[in-house]
Design a protein that fits this description.
By secondary structure, the protein is mainly alpha-helical. The protein is built from six helices and two strands, in the order H-H-H-H-E-E-H-H. It has a two-stranded antiparallel sheet with strand order 1-2. A hairpin with a 5-residue loop joins strand 1 and strand 2. Helix 1 runs antiparallel to helix 6, helix 2 crosses helix 4 and helix 3 packs across helix 4.
């Protein structure tokens, strides 16, 4: 299979440091957003990914509507499934999810399933903006990604 000029394997010497630099910037901002607790970040990301796995409109969410985007038949995610997927011990997941619920960043339904809130999107906007920057920095589309 021929490799495109934007295949990182063909230009690893440039792709690797660019990717690592962008990743370090992103993780530094996200670490700050989550008070130094990358497990909180990972748990929040897993909940968000599951929540948005089945969207009503494939063009949503935009980074400005994150947390307020309606979904139907959203896949459920609970403490046990987060622990299984992430490798974070179940009791640790429960403690950290409780903290995220107390922050107003996650809500829990009557069955113990979690979903992100609009407050999380609002409070974590700086991290979302840095994520958009990361995507632009590592995307084969370069600067053509829109921030709107």
């Amino acid at each position: 299979m021929p490799q495109s000029p934007q295949d990182p394997r063909t230009d690893f010497a440039q792709a690797f440091p660019a990717h690592v630099g962008a990743l370090v910037r992103l993780l530094t901002v996200l670490r700050r957003e989550f008070d130094g607790d990358l497990d909180l970040l990972l748990i929040c990301a897993i909940v968000g990914e599951r929540h948005f796995a089945r969207r009503i409109d494939p063009a949503t969410p935009t980074y400005k509507t994150l947390g307020a985007t309606p979904v139907t038949k959203t896949p459920s995610v609970n403490a046990y499934s987060i622990a299984q997927y992430s490798g974070i011990p179940r009791e640790t997941v429960r403690r950290k999810v409780s903290r995220l619920v107390d922050n107003g960043w996650l809500r829990v339904d009557g069955k113990g399933n979690f979903s992100p809130t609009a407050k999380a999107a609002e409070d974590l906007m700086h991290g979302t903006q840095e994520t958009v920057r990361f995507l632009k920095d590592v995307s084969p589309y370069g600067g053509s990604l829109s921030e709107t």
